[in-house]
Amino acid sequence: MAGRGDARLKPPTTRALLHAKYATCSIYLILEPVVRSSLWTSCSKWAGRGRRTIKRPGSIFYLDLRSVDAAHRPVGILGESVGIWKLPLPRPAGLMALKKALIVLAHSEKTSFNYALKEAAVEALKKKGWDVTVSDLYALNFNPLISKKDITGGLKDPDNFKYPAEAVQAYKEGRLSSDIVAEQKKLADANLVIFQFPLQWFGLPAILKGWFERVFTGEFAYSYSAMYDKGPFKNKKAVLSITTGGAGSMFSLLGVHGDMNVVLWPIQSGILYFCGFQVLEPQLIYGIGHTPADERLQILDRWKKRLENIWEEKPLSFAPSSYFDLNFQSGFLMKKEVQEEQKNKQVGLSVGHHLGKSIPTDNQIKTKK
Known about the structure:
Layout: H1 14-18, E1 26-29, E2 38-39, E3 52-53, E4 60-63, E5 100-105, H2 113-127, E6 131-136, H3 163-173, H4 178-189, E7 192-198, H5 206-215, E8 237-243, H6 260-272, E9 278-279, E10 283-285, H7 293-307, H8 336-342
Parallel strand pairs: 5-6, 5-7, 7-8, 8-9, 8-10
Antiparallel strand pairs: 1-4, 2-3
Helix pairs in contact: 2-7
GO molecular function: NADH dehydrogenase (quinone) (non-electrogenic) activity
Pfam families: Flavodoxin_2 (PF02525)
Protein name: NAD(P)H dehydrogenase [quinone] 1
């Protein structure tokens, strides 16, 4: 157990606790010699029993995790008995640890529907107990251009600058620029990542594309020895929330723009799945510029409803890395036994691994039933 005075855990306000409506309890471990505040407990065992003053180090009191902001997060979760425990604290079965969500917003206007979708997501997730962080790329004035400035200290080869190699070395040595490090920390902490953006030229907005290029450095987000379903982010989930100017019919099999599944493949497979993410069904909002106000409100409500159980959703289907010989000698090609197994099947594995056959219907839009 940490020694006295090694940490200071600022308690939430009495007001926050009084407004907590949940019986699920978390705990704070008091490391200060004296806690002067008299604190309310939201735990069902203590509800209605008034204030309890904690005065000795090692004491434990209960809080509703959802009433405590990220800066005052407890160090563990316990049951309903009070006592002195050693770290790490046990967590009773059935209690989910606090989940963290990161929302990456790539739209410049606060009056936009993308901003409204972001606000709806923050509201819905916080209501369900998520700790939510937002990276508003325009508000951050995020620089989307890769350059030597991304690396602090000396370069490995300043006369023949190779960004990927230099960035990997800088990542290993803790020499990446502070804005990249800040975004990487948000990603590392997150269980769920939502990318909120308008589709621009059939792809990512430039500022978001640059965010991926600068933040997803080698060894942090991927490596040839750990990619796709074995990637660094394999325990995280990601979802694209996209608005389009064109109607949904324009992105259909017979539509003038072509199949939306093909549009999504480079992002969902080439970036997210490549780095290990479990990619959830995209939230697609077509023709938003021609959508009446009342329908927009319904879209926001459906988005919030979906987010209530987003963590329980199953991911989209991709070809697992085990289907391939992952080495340079074999060229990272599909294994012969897998090719043989797929030979007589009527459709391909996915949009990118179609094997010269028909693409599975809505492979990048709907989960496999």
